[in-house]
Amino acid sequence: MNTEVLVVGAGPVGLTLAIELGRRGVACILIEKKAAPEFLPKMERCNARTMEIFRRMGLADRIRAAGLDRSVPMDVYVALAMNEPALLHLPYPSVADAQAQIAASTDGSMPREPYQLISQYTLEPLLKSVAEGLPCVTVRYGHEFVSLSQDADEATAVVRDEMDGTVEVRAQYVVGCDGGSSPVRKQLGIQLRGEGNLLRLYQGLYYAPDLFDRIPIGDGPGKGRHYHIADDRATFLIMQDSTKHWTLHAAVEEPAQMAAQFERTIGVPIRFDMLYVGEWKHNLLLADHYGAGRVFLAGDSVHLVIPTGGLGMNTGVGDAIDLAWKLHATLRGWGGPNLLPSYEVERRQIGDRNVGASRYASLGRRKWRSQYRPDIRDATPQGQATRENLARVANVEQRKTNEMIGAELGYRYVGSPLIWDEPGGPEHLFREYVPTTWPGARLPHVWVADGRSIHDLIGDGYTLLKLGASKADTTGLETAMRAYGAPLDVLAIDAVAPRDVYGYDLILVRPDLHVTWRGNTSPGDPAQLAALATGHSNG
Ligand SMILES: Cc1cc2nc3c(=O)[nH]c(=O)nc-3n(C[C@H](O)[C@H](O)[C@H](O)COP(=O)(O)OP(=O)(O)OC[C@H]3O[C@@H](n4cnc5c(N)ncnc54)[C@H](O)[C@@H]3O)c2cc1C
Question: How many other C-beta atoms can be found within 10 angstroms of the C-beta atom of residue 343?
Answer without folding.
Answer: 22
